[in-house]
Amino acid sequence: MSDVKPFVLDFDLVSGFCTSGKVKPTQRRVSDMVAQFANETAARAMVEGGDPLLYEFYGLDLPEDDSGVLQFGTTILYPGKVGEEYFMTKGHFHTILDTSEIYYGLSGHGMMLMETPEGQVDWKEIGPGEALYVPGRWAHRSINTGTEPLVMFFVYRGDAGHDYGTIEEKGYRKLVVERDGKPAVIDNPKWKV
Amino acid sequence: MSDVKPFVLDFDLVSGFCTSGKVKPTQRRVSDMVAQFANETAARAMVEGGDPLLYEFYGLDLPEDDSGVLQFGTTILYPGKVGEEYFMTKGHFHTILDTSEIYYGLSGHGMMLMETPEGQVDWKEIGPGEALYVPGRWAHRSINTGTEPLVMFFVYRGDAGHDYGTIEEKGYRKLVVERDGKPAVIDNPKWKV
Question: Which positions fall inside the Glucose-6-phosphate isomerase prokaryote domain (chains A, B) (predicted)?
Answer without folding.
Answer: 27-179
